[in-house]
């Protein structure tokens, strides 16, 4: 249920050579599921019109024209000439032509006049700050080079969203520029949800970045498997939250440079989603050496300033942590911020603090915190301030990777005992970035080593959360590698489950392999086609769905939600909704007393696309898939009596956020 982009495109500035998408088209098929998508813009520049493109603005000297000096299709291409800097080049704006929260493929052909080293990049602005991202690098050569189906999307917080070409200072030719909708893929409904299965023991969640919210299929997986906790993959880290210009402005206006200024603009997609869908949030992270700008530790918040004193840094730290929590609670009073990684990755594998120094633009493993404090003595005040300002119910964690290696583990345990005595820590976050390698013997850590770490952290009497679980395979994994990964995941999961009394959350670091930060090593439970991998099936093997399926908010909270006591029925793919009204479904179930949750036809405590499926199935095959009495009462959402496909359609529209209320 996506809005059509046809109207927008047709009303736009684009002329004859632009194909406005109508029927699904096949373009440069590079895999079955990636093969078809509605083409929304296509330029071959044969009519000489290049007006849909601009240069980058500002001091960009690029001039755009149609040229017959080179072309892939036909005789004309767009020519970007007069470029004086490598960042100069042709740009195509997305946010005035396309829809937010929708995935598109961009394809194009690019060529230098002679030899060039070009890139395709992406730019957007949130809260006045512009960010840049290279999408395709190394378009090096003298011939035409192809960009094939590169996924882009944007959220409605972003403005000035562009795809552009840069690199070198040579003239650039652009041809056959195509924007195509990524077709939505139905996720598997006939497998149990991870949160349904394990969520009574510990929260099951994942980490998401803004792009993920544009993928309907990814979000369907989140709704099915990971609805108990979300972590921002990057957007709540210091480099996303700290606003340099505002920090400097505040310091200049007040003469006080100890009150850092912050913004949660980048995290809005996640925070708004969690607010709307009642999903608890893990805050990641306050104090970290990485993804924290060096200027935060410098006089005048200036990159080349002197390091500030420890005293000044303590003030900045306190004010930062205070502002961070206060702003979150102010903006999102109803969101459950249930956990926070107060300090991340402060200990090395040998149990020593990090080396002092800048992080720099390339991101070193040195710590500016150690630089200013001389050692790891910044940890305790960080927890003290977090305890002082964190909202009630927000548990405080120390979080680290390689947390099973002796030297680091012992340092964490000593630190945690001390902080526990002072009452400022609640738990240990075990990141759990693991590596299955080629065999169970080679996997690192071994399952028994990981199990031992769980034992040791359990003995602390603090809570444990598995905060960033992923398990890499070798690159270009074979079927055998996936089997090892599955066996290893199983071993790790069983070990986690055996410690469930001490573990309150298990968070995967992402949903599908292709979107992972370690994508080339396929570390997650779902593949790029949104299909559950062998590892997923291995994990759930031997476990049963509980009789009471956990819901959000929990059934025991003030707003009770019904729970289902039956296993969800296997479903087939969702038939396309029809607007012709079929005959009313007859159900053998007696009418329920009242509606417990409007739209919740399958009585799982939530309203999702699965409810639309349940309705359509009950219409198609009432014997096999009848709705319960409660489900029938809940399912009648269209204001007309009886359960029809129109009810399913209404729920689908609600799920696609095309209507606000049921
Ligand atoms: C990673 C993100 O997933 C990447 O997108 C980013 O480029 C680097 O950081 N430990 C952590 C996480 O605590 O914040 C890191 O996340 C992964 C390692």
Detailed description of the structure:
The protein has 662 residues and is α/β, with parallel strands linked by helices. The chain has three domains: 37-181, Galactose-binding domain-like (Jelly Rolls, Sandwich), CATH 2.60.120.260; 205-432 and 446-471, Glycosidases (TIM Barrel, Alpha-Beta Barrel); 576-662, Type 1 dockerin domain (Orthogonal Bundle), CATH 1.10.1330.10. The protein has 17 helices and 22 strands. It has helices at 6-11, 194-198, 216-225, 238-241, 244-254, 268-277, 310-331, 368-373, 379-389, 406-421, 447-459, 479-498, 534-540, 609-620, 622-625, 629-635, 645-655, and strands spanning 25-26, 36-37, 39-43, 53-54, 63-67, 77-81, 91-93, 104-112, 116-126, 129-141, 145-152, 159-166, 172-181, 203-208, 229-232, 281-288, 337-344, 395-400, 427-430, 433-435, 463-472, 503-508. The protein has an eight-stranded parallel barrel with strand order 14-15-16-17-18-19-21-22, surrounded by four helices. Helix 7 (310-331) links the parallel strand 16 and strand 17. The longest helix has 22 residues, at 310-331. It is globular and about 75 Å long. Mean pLDDT is 87; it is low at 1-34 and 556-593. Bound molecules: (3S,4R)-3-hydroxy-2-oxopiperidin-4-yl beta-D-xylopyranoside. (3S,4R)-3-hydroxy-2-oxopiperidin-4-yl beta-D-xylopyranoside binds at residues 233-234, 344, 401, 431, 468, 517.
